[in-house]
Write a structure and sequence with these properties.
The chain has five helices and no strands. The chain has two domains: 75 residues, no CATH class; 43 residues, no CATH class. The protein starts with a helix and ends in a 5-residue tail after the last helix. By secondary structure, the protein is mainly alpha-helical. The radius of gyration is 26 Å and the shape is elongated.
């Protein structure tokens, strides 16, 4: 279990993009508008052969700055993530965690089948 928790903490940054708050989303949108307006002011005559490359570079820069903003303002500091670190010790001290145990549901299901109850 510790290995899985450790692996999760090592790779959890992947999910930060999906834990974005409304305030952070608004900041990211504002940043994107600002970058686009700056580029619009600097635009000159660009040969058609370079337009695609410039658009790609601009899009990459926007995405990079957006992800930097998200990583700086988002986190996984909430109770469920904190409690996971204590589950292992709790299980060693007290046995399985009843709320998350499937024993009771399975026993009830087996009894229903024995009694001939079916849907």
């Amino acid at each position: 279990m510790e290995e899985y928790v450790t692996q999760f903490h090592e790779t959890k940054d992947i999910f930060l993009e999906f834990r974005i708050s409304k305030r952070t989303q608004e900041k990211a949108d504002e940043l994107r508008k600002e970058l686009r307006s700056q580029r619009a002011q600097m635009r000159g005559r660009v040969p058609p052969s370079q337009r695609r490359r410039i658009r790609y570079d601009n899009r990459e820069e926007e995405n990079h700055q957006r992800m930097e903003l998200i990583h700086s303002e988002s986190n996984f500091n909430f109770v469920k993530m904190f409690l996971i670190s204590h589950f292992r010790d709790h299980i060693y001290m007290f046995g399985n965690i009843p709320i998350y145990s499937t024993e009771y549901g399975e026993l009830a299901h087996e009894e229903q089948i024995k009694d001939g109850w079916r849907r």
